[in-house]
Design goal:
The chain has one helix and no strands. It is mostly helical.
Length: about 80
């Protein structure tokens, strides 16, 4: 029985060592990828916040232009009504 263990022990220990190394490497890779994803999320959130700000400014500009055009149209309508 001891001879059987001597035969199988080195390959089993090699297999176990390889499994430990592969598992540890995969864990490190997963941590690295997870940290990259976190950084990308922060960058995307920052970009979205900037775009929201720009969109709000664009909406305000459009509203101001529409108000101005409405005033101009009302003025022209009043002038036409006075003439006619």
């Amino acid at each position: 029985m001891a001879d059987d263990i001597k035969i199988w022990l080195p390959p089993m220990l090699t297999l176990l060592g390889t499994l430990i190394v592969v598992t540890f490497t995969a864990w490190l890779s997963t941590r690295s990828v997870h940290s990259m994803i976190g950084e990308l999320r922060q960058e995307v959130r920052g970009d979205l916040a900037m775009l929201r700000g720009e969109l709000r400014l664009d909406i305000l500009r459009i509203e101001n232009k529409l108000d101005h055009y409405a005033e101009v149209q009302a003025t022209h309508s009043e002038k036409l009504n006075k003439r006619g």
